[in-house]
Task: inverse folding
């Protein structure tokens, strides 16, 4: 998804892919295949480009530090990326910055577990400090034995209170080496089995004062950590305010709505930022934009329902990733936008779930946008045909 933004900006774009059939290899010509955990592979790739950036946080930080010391431009730099890689370091840094954390503790012994349980009570949350995502490496702990069994397996864990939140929120910022920043509207998110399923921008009913506080918080983090590129901050909204959940220093699922709903997408902004170009406007194009993930279900055929969705609602934007289907896996997403938040959300949900095979109703009872004009396809008295082919499969 960075590739179209690079093309539009006139930027030569290369990728180090883990496998020859990785999704990025399907749309990018300059591909190296190799192990990103191998320093020699990383160094050889870095020598072919001017700037190195990332689509996940799992590259060994010691390798990134060595590349930076050798004079390669690593953005975000290892001194910033470490706070997205290591959740314990992130919690410590947020405390130092005076930003709202849930109650937490580093867990390395039985005494640590007992002390934290005494402090917050059961149930509480345990996380692996590194490597977890999409619900992986996260467990709800109801008993001391559950915690000790997992601790014996991994040796170190992060404990957090189980937050009584009203909803989950997220916000994204772009920041360049020159210190320019741009923040998109705060969004409401919803998780399904630990995986982000929906994002609504802007977050419905969010008080202006709270949105301002959240914006100020992410700007404070981005500046203090000297972030370069795009960063996402996931939050819990509570009755008292908000608590920081996690960070991602890269384009993020909660920002996919910006592809079609913002003046500047998170992908274009990330490239602008890491190349130290002037940043684009993060303003929303419409009153409401919605992203709904297509999560793999029981059938592998995404193409035929994809065709139906494009014909049924030509105003939705479908983005497929070229991944193999398996249950719960993110294989694409749908963006929709407009003025009526309920209608926009319903359209995006139907499109995503119809492609996945979860919703089997081909003609849901929902009106098309009032300003949408489409012409019936030749020989078709009932359907509509999309008049453009800008969707990417």
Result:
């Amino acid at each position: 998804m960075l590739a179209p933004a690079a093309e539009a900006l006139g930027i030569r774009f290369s990728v180090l892919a883990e496998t020859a059939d990785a999704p990025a290899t399907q749309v990018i010509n300059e591909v190296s295949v190799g192990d990103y955990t191998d320093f020699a592979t990383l160094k050889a790739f870095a020598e072919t480009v001017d700037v190195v950036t990332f689509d996940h946080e799992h590259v060994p930080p010691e390798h990134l530090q060595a590349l930076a010391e050798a004079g390669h431009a690593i953005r975000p730099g290892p001194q910033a990326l470490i706070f997205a890689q290591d959740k314990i370091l992130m919690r410590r840094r947020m405390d130092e910055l005076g930003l709202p954390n849930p109650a937490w503790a580093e867990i390395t012994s039985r005494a640590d577990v007992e002390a934290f349980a005494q402090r917050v009570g059961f149930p509480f949350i345990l996380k692996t400090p590194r490597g977890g995502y999409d619900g992986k490496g996260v467990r709800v702990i109801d008993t001391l034995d559950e915690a000790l069994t997992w601790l014996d397996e991994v040796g170190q864990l992060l404990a957090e209170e189980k937050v009584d939140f009203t909803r989950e929120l997220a916000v994204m910022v772009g920041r360049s080496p020159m210190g320019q920043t741009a923040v998109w509207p705060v969004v409401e998110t919803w998780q399904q089995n630990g995986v982000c399923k929906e994002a609504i921008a802007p977050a419905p009913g969010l008080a202006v004062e709270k949105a301002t506080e959240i914006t100020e918080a992410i700007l404070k983090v981005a500046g203090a950590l000297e972030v370069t590129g795009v960063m996402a901050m996931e939050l819990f909204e509570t009755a008292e305010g908000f608590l920081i959940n996690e960070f991602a220093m890269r384009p993020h699922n909660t920002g996919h709505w910006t592809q079609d709903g913002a003046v500047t997408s998170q992908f274009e902004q990330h490239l602008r930022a890491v190349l130290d170009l002037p940043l684009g406007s993060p303003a929303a194009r419409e009153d409401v934009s919605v992203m709904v993930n297509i999560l793999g279900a029981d059938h592998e055929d995404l193409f035929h329902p994809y065709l139906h969705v494009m014909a049924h609602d030509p105003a939705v934007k479908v983005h497929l990733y070229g991944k193999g289907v398996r249950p719960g896996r993110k294989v694409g997403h749908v963006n929709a936008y407009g003025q009526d938040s309920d209608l926009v959300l319903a359209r995006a949900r139907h499109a995503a779930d119809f492609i996945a095979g979860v919703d089997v109703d081909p003609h849901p009872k929902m009106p098309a946008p009032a300003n949408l004009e489409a012409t019936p396809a030749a020989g078709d008295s009932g359907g509509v045909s999309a008049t453009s082919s800008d969707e990417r499969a």
The chain is about 30% helix and 25% strand. The CA atoms of residues 104 and 252 lie 25 Å apart. Confidence is low (pLDDT under 50) at residues 373-393.
